[in-house]
Amino acid sequence: MTVLSDRMEDYIKVIYLLEEETGERVPTSAVAEQMDVSPPSVSSMLSKLEERGFVDREEYGGATLTEEGELVALEILRHHRLLEQFLVEALDYDWSEVHDEADRLEHHISERFERRLAEVLDNPDVDPHGDPIPDPDLELPEETEARRLTDLAPGDRIEVTRIRHRGDEELAFLADHGIRPGAQLELLEEDPFDMITVAGENGEETLPRRVARLVEGEAVPEASTE
Ligand SMILES: [Zn+2]
Prior knowledge:
By secondary structure, the protein is an alpha+beta fold. It has helices at 6-22, 28-35, 39-51, 67-89, 99-105, 111-120, 168-176, 209-212, and strands at 55-58, 62-65, 147-148, 157-163, 184-190, 195-200, 203-208, 215-219.
């Protein structure tokens, strides 16, 4: 693979994730917010990435990844997600404390290490947060239809299958509120101040919508309450 700096790889990953989330080209301001830098520094990085053929930009239309850029993103996500799985399975980390560690390590493992990691873990399809792991050819596994916690109506139940995240802080917050992959949740109510109340394994929990929207799951019929 072409040699890119960690920073460049992070930009490519952020563009991929933002585009995946919104289904649209990514505005500079969104990248700036994610990377916690000023829009002008994002612009200058995006120019470099465009020159190298990873990013395609339109003046007012935001950025998207080229095919080559997408392959870089999938390769890093494969590293990241395998590492997260490894930290949980082999090193006894909690699912809510592996992201930042994987963020640091993902740039530094060799292809050989990646292969061994996948073998030891028995080639998993998903990581501990339910994020799909690209296969060795960088193809993503087929995804099942999931519903966002914030799209439910009161009384709807889901079993959590995926928690999107950008850092351990969000994950720890959710874990503290009894929300984890595999948990069953029922939406109780949404208030006008953007707070959402759910019934979970530890009883009622109230969360800001901004965090609740990271949680996805499969619908659970009412009868299967445990
Ligand atoms: Zn992660």
